[in-house]
Design brief:
Layout lengths: L1 H33 L2 H13 L6 H20 L4 H22 L5 H24 L3 H14 L5 H12 L3 H13 L7 E7 L5 E3 L4 H10 L2 E8 L4 H14 L3 H14 L4 H13 L3 H14 L4 H13 L3 H14 L4 H12 L1 H11 L4 H31 L4 H13 L3 H9 L1
Antiparallel strand pairs: 1-2, 1-3
Helix pairs in contact: 1-2, 1-3, 2-3, 3-4, 3-5, 4-5, 5-6, 6-7, 7-8, 8-10, 10-11, 11-12, 12-13, 12-14, 14-15, 15-16, 16-18, 17-18, 18-19, 19-20
Length: 422
């Protein structure tokens, strides 16, 4: 008798809980419609306390209301990141619960609201990118991809903005994901210009909608856009990041792959040369230098870069030849003139050390005077190149300061005064 009574009492308690849940869910629904934040939170909190006793339909309704409440806050831009995360998490529960129950009572609206949230996130990402707030843009594009895993273009944008913010780890991680997903970015879509705003609007794959807008007169200039593959760019960026971060083995693999995609990219070729330079593989370095010159024998920028890499390799005579060739092709090659002057001034430190090491004997004084003459000749040899730099760019501070030092050392007071007056 007692046992049967206990069962009956238990059934009544569960029934009472279910009734309370229905009531609180209705209260939450009404509060959301009214826009009453505190009332909604209180009602949802009461349901959450007894959620373990709810059936799947009630749980789905609870998570839908929770997500819908967060969605309303997102629209008002209240605690944007927190509420976006809440929308995603809550609606994920709705989808799982209704999929198991083979129902779509709440899923359809949840999907529509997720799309709307996604668009808000994308717009915020674009806004941040346009303001050069690249860290914020990266975060938003990553979230947009999380909301739309099939729209891999957002992952690509997240990687690009990460590069701009110098978050190279984040960029590499996203590029790797894109490579694993087989992303190419080789898309085609229909566009038209909206007459009122003058902006190009994409209609995606929907040519009929685009054509309808043209027919109605709200749009003009219809186009079919076919973008080239972004894969070579991704591989190239990975190679350059690895190179910059000193991960030379990874960089070498990526560059070799990138050059297969774009063998004529001079930046990649120069980066590959620099890698061989750093690993002291001079045979490969010189092989690539010949390849680079064969491709662009009259490219003054290439010649200048070869001068820089030769200088770094301590091949100073080669560096001098490259700088002189760059100048012969482009008489306004400012940096080539400056580096040529620096090359000419290189013996200065060694001569100064020798002079300072001498004693005060007659023999040492004679040696000192000879070294001083040699030092002065070096200074004088660099003056024309530094003047050329200033003819091209009067504000080049390195050239100005170096020339001032030379004029002081050579006691060229009039020249120094004239330079300081500029």
């Amino acid at each position: 008798m007692n046992r049967r009574y206990a069962y009956a009492l238990s059934a009544l308690m569960i029934s009472g809980l279910a009734m309370a849940q229905k009531s609180e869910l209705k209260d939450a629904e009404r509060a959301i419609k009214k826009g009453d934040v505190q009332e909604t939170k209180a009602a949802l909190s009461k349901v959450e306390a007894v959620l373990s006793n709810a059936n799947d339909a009630q749980k789905a309704q609870y998570y839908f209301l929770k997500g819908n409440f967060a969605y309303e806050q997102v629209k008002k831009k209240v605690d944007l990141d927190k509420n976006i995360d809440e929308v995603v998490a809550s609606y994920k529960q709705v989808f799982e619960l209704e999929k198991g129950a083979k129902s779509n009572k709440y899923s359809k609206q949840a999907e529509e609201e997720l799309k709307a949230v996604s668009q808000i996130v994308v717009n915020k990402a674009i806004e941040a990118n346009n303001k050069s707030q690249y860290t914020e843009a990266t975060k938003r594009f990553n979230k947009a991809y999380e909301l739309n895993p099939t729209d891999t273009i957002y992952l690509y944008y997240a990687a690009s903005t990460a590069v701009n913010s110098k978050d190279y780890t984040g960029a590499i991680n996203n590029y790797k994901k894109l490579m694993d997903l087989g992303f190419t970015g080789q898309e085609s879509y229909y566009t038209a210009v909206e007459k009122t705003s003058g902006e190009v609007q994409s209609f995606g794959k929907d040519s009929k909608m685009r054509d309808l807008m043209i027919k109605q007169g709200s749009h003009k200039d219809p186009k079919f856009v076919k973008e080239s593959s972004k894969r070579p760019e991704i591989i190239k960026n990975m190679a350059l990041i690895y190179h910059q971060e000193g991960q030379y083995d990874e960089a070498e693999k990526a560059i070799a792959e990138a050059r297969k995609s774009d063998p004529n990219d001079m930046n990649l070729l120069l980066t590959q040369m620099d890698l061989y330079l750093k690993s002291n593989n001079m045979g490969k370095y010189e092989e690539l230098a010949k390849e680079a010159l064969a491709k662009n024998p009259n490219d003054d920028v290439l010649l200048y870069n070869l001068g820089v890499t030769s200088y770094q390799a301590k091949k100073y005579d080669e560096a001098k030849k490259y700088y002189e060739k760059a100048i012969a092709i482009n008489p306004k090659a400012e940096n080539a003139y400056l580096n040529l002057a620096i090359l000419k001034l290189m013996p200065d430190e060694g001569l100064t050390n020798k002079m300072n090491a001498l004693g005060m004997s007659a023999s040492d004084n004679k040696k000192y005077d000879a070294l001083k003459k040699e030092k002065d000749l070096i200074y004088k040899s660099a003056i024309p190149d530094l003047k050329k730099v200033l003819d091209i760019n009067k504000d080049n501070t390195e050239a100005i300061n170096t020339l001032k030092g030379i004029y002081k050392a050579l006691e060229m007071k009039n020249e120094l005064k004239a330079l300081e007056a500029k």
